[in-house]
UniProtKB/TrEMBL annotation:
<dbReference type="InterPro" id="IPR058240">
    <property type="entry name" value="rSAM_sf"/>
</dbReference>
<feature type="domain" description="Radical SAM core">
    <location>
        <begin position="76"/>
        <end position="316"/>
    </location>
</feature>
<dbReference type="InterPro" id="IPR006638">
    <property type="entry name" value="Elp3/MiaA/NifB-like_rSAM"/>
</dbReference>
<dbReference type="InterPro" id="IPR040086">
    <property type="entry name" value="MJ0683-like"/>
</dbReference>
<keyword id="KW-0408">Iron</keyword>
<keyword id="KW-0411">Iron-sulfur</keyword>
<protein>
    <submittedName>
        <fullName>PA0069 family radical SAM protein</fullName>
    </submittedName>
</protein>
<dbReference type="Pfam" id="PF04055">
    <property type="entry name" value="Radical_SAM"/>
</dbReference>
<keyword id="KW-0479">Metal-binding</keyword>
<dbReference type="InterPro" id="IPR007197">
    <property type="entry name" value="rSAM"/>
</dbReference>
Amino acid sequence: MPPAPTRIAAAQPALVPVDSIKGRGTATAMPHRFEQREREQHDDGWGSLDQLATEEQLPPATQVIEEQAGKIISSNQSPDITFDYSINPYRGCEHGCIYCFARPTHSYLNLSPGLDFETRIIAKVNAAERLRETLAGARYEPRSLVLGTATDAYQPVERRLGLTRRIIEVLAESQHPFSVVTKSSGIERDMDLIAPMAAQGLVSVYLSVTTLDNDLARILEPRAAAPARRLRTIQALADAGVPVGVSVSPVIPFINEPELERILEAAHAAGASSAFSIPVRLPWEVNPLFQDWLQRHFPDRAERVMARIRDMRGGKDNDARFGTRFTGEGVWAELLQARLRRAIAKLGLRNERRPVQLALFTPPRKPSAQGSLF
């Protein structure tokens, strides 16, 4: 188990109707799995609950909490992941994707994987400095590295803080190869850094496109870029010579699953040269959050969706086993993989990672002793 990070006082339950909040993936600040106390609303006899239900509540604002990270590169220890290092400049994500497998990580901060995950964002403000120190270290060995493996490195707060850009500046200086996974058009801002590195074989980008339906995107990923905007980003990257792929992940049965081939066709037409897909995963608190979302938005098919997920997860809501967690198992998982393979072959897309160029790496200049004092 990873060491427990700095703990932050848990937010009070959201004072809003539980059905939905415009622009948020969930309306509930559900308790996390480590919570020792449960809170519930109580009628004090003065009609406070009725008043709370009828009063218009302001939507919760995003709060950025600055953190001084002890380290910024995480080493991968999982046998079914194809990269060695990862960097996540932020914890929590304002995109609010209801299915996000990283939601349970907010539990380690004593925060809710629900509303807190998308409204209380932890920003590792010294990320670039920590990265420089690491890459300049005598024992550092360059390996495959991915930005934004847990939470999106280009989520809305990045426009103001620029932590991801400063990280890429250090990677560019040292000619360290990296990949990015994002569902944000904000990556276009850093084309001046990314395109020259791509020309040296040092960068690849993957855009997550889960649906072409704007109405579905608004409730599935409420603060992420619109589907058409992501396709334009794929085109902009491809036009700049950046190898760009598409991630049709997660695939949710009967929700976005029928769109699989159409998404791949649209991404290919925009310039994507590779593709991959992962069935929806429901670890820990993601499971009740997702099922609540299903009941609110798709009550007519919620049971059918969960039944199909269980068919692909050995009869359970979630299967965390290495080797099957990213593919599922059983007849429905095999059919989904067969559809993916056929579409990829038809379009001439790649489904394997590009070779990582490590030979150009040069350690960056070390931080000056004076600079480290400020």
